[in-house]
């Protein structure tokens, strides 16, 4: 009988769907990743695994799972999977594109506005009993209206973000590995070189995936080229940013503030230099965290596993 390993606790209705096609072994925690040792043991006789970004699919995993047919990744990004290796082994890998696009763009927009208007700082100020009176520049922030907003990575999430910018009368620029002329026509977005994006943007939004080309793209040199009052938002992947360079840029006034939904290492080390800065807002990788969207992501993983174990093409194959 087929066996499915599920590395996070998911709602029972989804488990029951999986149980109609195979035996299910599920880690009984939703906030704590399945330990690597236990994962390696569980997949020894598995034909499918339902994973999150916490699980690395590498040579060790593949060697331990000779019967594995499908890896269903509950994410759009798949830098946690060695795609070349699974291809060579004839294993199908899937992800969850499209279903989280709008929700992630909304979180990015929320983060941008919260940083621009210093909402977190202001809320702490009230909670700490420091609010004594009104002041003309008390927590004065930055306007989005008429600002130059640069998007790094014009994939589906980048496009969804750009659509939201139109209602704020912004000037939209973007840099991507390829141009999207349909988006330029529909939204009036301007394709620019990366350096131009850095130099002219009042807000820079990173929605890019992690690749060899994007790794550490936002480094010391990049931050030095940005405006001193620029705001940087990352809802792409943590390793796109050199976080020490970012912290230095914020401390020295190279840029004004940042908002991050993703980090190089998650959860964040509480000694991380970014946590000591008031002009930083960090949230715990909640870009797609609405109930409806997370249900859709899980359902898509379930559907992909069902298809493959029934010898049908998966709905959203990566490879």
Automatic annotation (TrEMBL):
<comment type="similarity">
    <text>Belongs to the D-isomer specific 2-hydroxyacid dehydrogenase family.</text>
</comment>
<dbReference type="InterPro" id="IPR050223">
    <property type="entry name" value="D-isomer_2-hydroxyacid_DH"/>
</dbReference>
<dbReference type="InterPro" id="IPR006140">
    <property type="entry name" value="D-isomer_DH_NAD-bd"/>
</dbReference>
<feature type="domain" description="D-isomer specific 2-hydroxyacid dehydrogenase catalytic">
    <location>
        <begin position="4"/>
        <end position="319"/>
    </location>
</feature>
<feature type="domain" description="D-isomer specific 2-hydroxyacid dehydrogenase NAD-binding">
    <location>
        <begin position="109"/>
        <end position="287"/>
    </location>
</feature>
<dbReference type="GO" id="GO:0051287">
    <property type="term" value="F:NAD binding"/>
</dbReference>
<dbReference type="Pfam" id="PF00389">
    <property type="entry name" value="2-Hacid_dh"/>
</dbReference>
<dbReference type="InterPro" id="IPR036291">
    <property type="entry name" value="NAD(P)-bd_dom_sf"/>
</dbReference>
<dbReference type="InterPro" id="IPR029753">
    <property type="entry name" value="D-isomer_DH_CS"/>
</dbReference>
<dbReference type="GO" id="GO:0005829">
    <property type="term" value="C:cytosol"/>
</dbReference>
<protein>
    <submittedName>
        <fullName>D-glycerate dehydrogenase</fullName>
    </submittedName>
</protein>
<dbReference type="GO" id="GO:0016618">
    <property type="term" value="F:hydroxypyruvate reductase [NAD(P)H] activity"/>
</dbReference>
<dbReference type="GO" id="GO:0030267">
    <property type="term" value="F:glyoxylate reductase (NADPH) activity"/>
</dbReference>
<dbReference type="Pfam" id="PF02826">
    <property type="entry name" value="2-Hacid_dh_C"/>
</dbReference>
<dbReference type="InterPro" id="IPR006139">
    <property type="entry name" value="D-isomer_2_OHA_DH_cat_dom"/>
</dbReference>
<keyword id="KW-0560">Oxidoreductase</keyword>
């Amino acid at each position: 009988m087929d066996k499915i390993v599920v590395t996070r606790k998911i709602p029972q209705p989804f488990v029951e769907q999986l149980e109609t096609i195979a035996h299910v072994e599920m880690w009984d925690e939703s906030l704590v990743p399945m330990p690597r040792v236990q994962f390696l043991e569980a997949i020894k006789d598995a034909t499918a695994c339902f994973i999150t970004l916490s699980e690395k699919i590498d040579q060790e995993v593949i060697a331990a799972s000779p019967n594995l047919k499908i890896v269903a990744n509950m994410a759009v990004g798949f830098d946690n999977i060695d795609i070349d290796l699974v291809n060579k082994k004839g294993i199908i890998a899937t992800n969850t594109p499209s279903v989280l696009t709008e929700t992630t763009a909304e979180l990015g927009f929320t983060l941008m506005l919260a940083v621009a208007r210093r909402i977190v700082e202001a809320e702490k100020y009230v909670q700490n009993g420091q609010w004594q009176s009104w002041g003309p520049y008390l927590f004065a922030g930055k306007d989005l209206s008429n600002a130059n907003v640069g998007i790094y990575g014009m994939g589906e999430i980048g496009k969804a973000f750009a659509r939201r910018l139109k209602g704020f009368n912004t000037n939209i620029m973007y840099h991507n590995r390829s141009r999207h002329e349909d988006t330029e026509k529909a939204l009036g977005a301007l394709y620019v070189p990366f350096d131009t994006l850095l130099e002219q943007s009042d807000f820079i939004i990173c929605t890019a995936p992690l690749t060899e080309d994007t790794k550490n793209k936002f480094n010391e040199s990049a931050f030095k080229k940005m405006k001193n009052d620029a705001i940087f938002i990352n809802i792409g992947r943590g390793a796109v940013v050199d976080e020490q360079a970012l912290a230095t840029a914020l401390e020295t006034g190279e840029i004004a503030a940042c908002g991050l939904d993703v980090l190089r290492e998650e959860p964040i080390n509480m000694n991380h230099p970014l946590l000591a800065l008031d002009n930083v807002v960090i949230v715990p990788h909640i870009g797609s965290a609405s109930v409806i969207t997370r249900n859709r992501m899980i359902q898509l993983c379930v559907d992909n596993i069902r298809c493959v174990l029934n010898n049908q093409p998966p709905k959203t194959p990566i490879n």
